[in-house]
Design brief:
Oligomer: single chain
CATH topology of the domain at 17-145 and 190-236: Undecaprenyl pyrophosphate synthetase
CATH architecture of the domain at 17-145 and 190-236: 3-Layer(aba) Sandwich
CATH class of the domain at 17-145 and 190-236: Alpha Beta
Number of strands: 6
Strand content: 5-15%
Distance between the termini: 51 Å
Number of helices: 8
Length: 256
């Protein structure tokens, strides 16, 4: 599949976020509004995943992270969890050719060992198949929780201190980042949450320190490429200072 030229949209290709992360929320409410089973909402949501991944690739986004299944989601009704795993397996298998055609490289973030064995196998197969792709990177956050991620990283660092590999004073922000699932990845420039909920829900809490946040009332199954573009335009209009104050100048050109 050929990518569209991002200049065909009102977007400035020079100001695109390098990394967009999405909290895909609202599948259950979408189904409830239509008097459907929650699983039907997840099925419709999986179609949105396909269209947004394609849209991100076409628009020139370098990295897209989708919060697909949290550590807390394991406590949902067994029937719903089973359906989610079935949809995940179907995606991993059915989208391989599409990911290859678009040059998308897949990564899995989270406690992969907690996923069913057949899901682990299909995920690893797709990751291996796409590992040399040079286009967009797609991260699926599966059995992912930011507190668990940070805890695991701290435990690893503690073991290194215990064995004398490092000293406590050696620990830096960069070192902590390198012990997270997202090591060597850029932090998300933009985090989008659908369904109108104003919270991160245990998602990328370390990485989101200076991310721009955008919350839309749109439920995930109704989220479209057009709304995605509108959000990206909003992002490009924001003044990102990363905690700093921009230096203004006086009439004579000297800083104030």
């Amino acid at each position: 599949m050929k990518s569209e030229n991002p200049q065909e949209t009102p977007l400035d290709p020079e100001k695109l976020p390098a990394h967009v992360a999405m909290i895909m929320d609202g599948n259950g409410r979408w189904a409830k509004k239509r008097l459907m089973n929650r699983v039907k909402g997840h099925e419709k949501g999986s179609q949105t995943v396909r269209s947004i991944v394609t849209a991100a690739r076409e628009l020139g986004i370098g990295m897209l992270t989708l919060y697909a299944f949290s550590t807390e989601n394991w406590s949902r009704p067994r029937v719903e969890v089973k359906a989610l795993m079935m949809l995940l397996k179907r995606f991993l298998v059915s989208e391989r050719d599409e990911l290859m055609g678009q040059g998308v490289r897949l990564n899995i973030l989270g406690q992969k060992e907690k996923l069913p064995v057949d899901i682990q196998r299909e995920a690893e197969r797709t990751v291996q198949m796409t590992q040399n792709n040079q286009g967009m990177v797609l991260n699926l956050a599966l059995s992912y929780g930011s507190r668990q991620e940070i805890t695991a990283g701290v435990q690893t660092l503690a073991e290194k201190i215990k064995t004398g590999l490092i000293q406590p004073v050696d620990i830096t922000e960069e070192m902590i980042s390198d012990h997270l699932y997202t090591r060597k990845m850029p932090d998300p420039d933009l985090i989008i949450r659908t369904s109108g909920e104003f919270r991160l829900s245990n998602f990328m809490m370390w990485q989101a320190a200076y991310s721009e946040l955008f919350v839309t009332n749109t439920l995930w199954p109704d989220f479209t490429k057009d709304e995605f573009i509108e959000i990206l335009i909003n992002f490009q209009e924001r003044d990102r200072r990363f905690g700093k104050v921009k230096c203004s100048t006086s009439n004579d050109g000297s800083p104030q």
